[in-house]
Specification:
Layout: E1 6-11, E2 14-17, H1 24-30, H2 36-40, E3 72-76, H3 78-81, H4 86-89
Antiparallel strand pairs: 1-2, 1-3
């Protein structure tokens, strides 16, 4: 993945984000500098650190995830993930 579009697996009512956001706020959360609550209203919450189309080369996260029968794969842009919580996806 690249940017802040997300991939989730919904399994047995439990939601797991399997992609990593590439944004200033996500970097700060991973570093333990801010909480998820602080990130939701952070003034830089929409600034991404990776995207397609601005450079000739971009670092892309490639990963695999085991899926099971009955799993749901949810792919969404920040337009959804900004207004729907992970719990609401399940």
């Amino acid at each position: 993945n690249v940017g802040d579009s997300r991939a989730y697996i919904v399994r047995n009512g439990s939601v797991k984000q399997i992609s990593q956001d590439h944004s200033i706020v996500a970097d700060e959360m991973r570093a333990g500098l801010i909480t998820a609550d602080q990130a939701r209203n952070h003034p830089q919450r929409n600034i991404i650190t990776r995207c397609l189309g601005t450079k000739t080369e971009v670092e892309v996260d490639i990963f695999s995830e085991k899926v099971q029968e009955g799993d749901l794969l949810v792919l969404c842009t920040d337009g959804l993930s900004a207004v729907v919580t992970d719990e609401e996806l399940g």
